[in-house]
Amino acid sequence: QVLSLPIVVIVHGNQDNNAKATVLWDNAFSETDRVPFVVAEQVPWEKMCDTLNLKFMAEVQTTKGLLKEHYFFLAQKIFNDNSARFEDFQNRRVSWAQFNKEILPGRGFTFWQWFDGVLDLTKRCLKNYWSDRLISGFISKQYVCKLLSTEPDGTFLLRFSDSEIGGVTIAHVIRGKDGSSQVENIQPFSAKDLSIRSLGDRIRDLGQLRNLYPNIPKDQAFGSHYNKEQTGKD
């Protein structure tokens, strides 16, 4: 006899996301010699970070995992706390409800539904960009504004959308003639959008984008991801 990985039976595809959350939580946090189906209701945030990192690397098939600043953003999101420091989250515990039951403030989805959407998008369309560290990804809109506000005109970075499941957006700085700066976010691209035209080619198309933050010319950063354009009638 051997113990199998957790199994969840579903009756419709719309239950798939919740089933994956149940399997992930059970697989990561249950004890081997437990009473059947008993699993902790709360787990240390640090343990959750390790689980999300392993899941991300396995799903996307990349060797480039999550960074310290990514964990900080994810902690702010799941605990709905933008005032705490990174160290303040170290001793917190995250509950199953926070992970996949409670709707994120101002959104129509849970933390896991959002994270799983990022996983799917990255796996399908952004694997090479992520592996080349061209995507900041897990970073808040407010922090992006702080980073870019002092940068030259046309500086940009890529972050996963906060408001949509499975979207990546480009934030870029526009400087007025008076020297004032404004950070704009381009409408998020979904996997469907990126299957029509790749992220690299979209970045090449957008003339207002010049340097990837902090200061890498976009053709140098993304040149290897451009597709050779067709000539003639196209």
UniProtKB/TrEMBL annotation:
Nucleus among keywords: yes
Recorded family membership: Belongs to the transcription factor STAT family.
Name of the coding gene: Stat6_1
Subcellular locations according to the entry: Cytoplasm; Nucleus
Name of protein: STAT6 protein
GO molecular function: DNA binding; DNA-binding transcription factor activity
Superkingdom, taxonomy of origin: Eukaryota
InterPro entries, per the entry: p53-like_TF_DNA-bd_sf, SH2, SH2_dom_sf, STAT, STAT_linker
Gene3D superfamilies assigned to the protein according to its UniProt record, in alphabetical order: EF-hand, SH2 domain
GO cellular component, one term: cytoplasm
GO biological process: cell surface receptor signaling pathway
Keywords: Activator, Cytoplasm, DNA-binding, Nucleus, Phosphoprotein, SH2 domain, Transcription, Transcription regulation
Keyword DNA-binding: yes
Residue intervals of the SH2 domain: 114-213
